[in-house]
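User: hey, got a sec? need Six-hairpin glycosidase folded
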Amino acid sequence: MHFSHIFTIISLGLAVHAQTCWENLICTGPLDTAFPGQWEANIFAPDCRTVFPVSILSLANASVISKWPGSAQISGNGSALVFDFGKEVGGLATVSYAAQGSGALGLAFSEAKNWIGLWSDSSNGRFQAGDGAIYSNFSASGNYSYTTDKAHLRGGFRYLTLFLITNETASTIDINYVSVEIGFQPTWSNLRAYSGYFDCSDEDLNKIWYSGAYTLQTNSVPVDTGRIFEASGWNNSGALSNGSTVIVDGAKRDRAVWPGDMGIAVPATFVSIGDLDSVKNALQTMYDHQNKDWSFPEAGPPLLQQGSDTYHMWTMIGTYNYLLYTNDTEFLDKNWDRYTHAMEYIYGKVHQPSGLLNVTGVRDWARWQQGFNNSETNMILYHTLITGAELATWQEDTTGLAQTYTSRATNLSTAINKYCWDTSYGAFKDNATDTNLHPQDANSMAIYFGVVAPSSASAQSISSRLTHNWTPIGAESPELPNNISPFISSFEINAHFVAGQATRALDLIRRSWGWYLHHPNGTGSTVIEGYLTNGSFAYRNSRGYSYDESYVSHSHGWSAGPTSALTSYIVGLAVSGRVGSTWTLKPQFGDLEYAQAGFVTSLGKFSAGWNVTGDGRAYSVWWKVPEGTVGKVTLPPLPSGKTGKITIDGKSFKNKSIRKKEGLTFEIGGGNHSIIVVSK
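Assistant: Yep! Here you go:
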């Protein structure tokens, strides 16, 4: 039943049928996930595009008054009730009500419980007036129905406050019906049809993985729902890209393409929801708005901010990631000339004799200083060159670009280690001339991008040094003091995993993402943009920004790092060649008992898992991957520290054994395989 039919029923005064209408709207069809299993219980996505509140809260103290659906009345000027949807939602809200007297029904939205009130939390911008509320006016007693218009689509919220504005002492409103038509993931008929999954022995990690996946869904939006800056209120009717769906940075705001955010969001999208159409449209809009000097904007339309060397390169890295996951050669052919010009533009900022990039486009993720030979930017350039060489090979370039890019990357790595490494501290400096600041971003990327070898003393020192920034609720970023950035911490957890420090990485995930998952004022379903070390949601305020604390996004794809990391490093399954033609399986057990995950490419389904038994004296590993692919499997040492005998597909191999420290690496073809390792 379409809910316009329900509006007709209520307008005729048949509000008693509202409960029946709710029941008829609830969708109970199959999940259609690529990997059915008990882990589907962790999916936050609703089973219908029309969703309803689950309870009513008191505005005074945010305590639960009653379950919903039910009955609710607002009586008297300024009186209010808060409708809690139980998780992050977003789209067009509909309220049907019976009014006595005259006045207006106000609607205000909030992602966080501590910002519920008669004004919506802030989405319009830090220098603008507050978002305020929207109103449904009534001039006489009767039945009314109100649906927010497209411009006032609210991209992300959990709480909807309904309140009465009236000059009449006897005016009341009886709320009969409240719903939201989901606006995100617009091309999906089934919001729960994930192409990836994850499950392990730690329920918090499972929920964190799925909260990242759900965040990415809320960030995949219709292409005509971008944020436009307004003098007051909000306007989400801006053009973002061509196509039907596009990935943006946040559900509530900024609702624009930000390539830096995609550095974390795209790998997480691939292993979870699998929506790469939104990724393609986001990248294409960056190419379509490339500047005459071949630089890319920092953000897509309608913002089109400029002046960021790092975000310029993130568009290029995003191009590589998209091709790795899709092998969309048509997209690469279309944009290859623009890509190569973009490479020359950024490499033209590498100066001699240092051989380091000199940063002139200083806009970046939020760090408080940028410029000159900033080490983070040089780490990103290294990764841009390495991935560019891969793209040149895939493009079958005959001009030697792959060799050129590889040679440039080698020289850059030498320069970074020569000029930016702080031997006395055992980590990279923020700049070639800076001896005091050792940033989280550059040091995490140094390991993650391979500027230092994973097993090297430098990598192990960096991994250890990064823990010096930790607080009980996450890692403070020295380059943004007093702030915790789940975006940059996403790079850090990847770095610890690459360095073989799985327990350390899991610790940080639990400290930061686990803290927010259980926060009583959070969404309980998505990942937050950032927060302060004192536990408040006032991200970035400590550096003198004039952000309203309610401006912080509580559903931000750049914070979804654990979703890809848990699949790629804990389970250990990752693609290394286009769409998984080659792949790697390198499990890391950490402190877990078991884990499994899977994802889908155009070649078919990829899945793997492992189980540790006997107090670490034995483990089993299995994987199912398409025939015709080739993988490199690395079996870890036994957690017990003993040597072990190996059985592959039920056959014992005398010449294959697990060593105490090194483990064992070998190549194997596709298909279904299993291995058992038992201590000698």
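Quick note: The mean pLDDT is 93. Let me know if you need anything else on Six-hairpin glycosidase.
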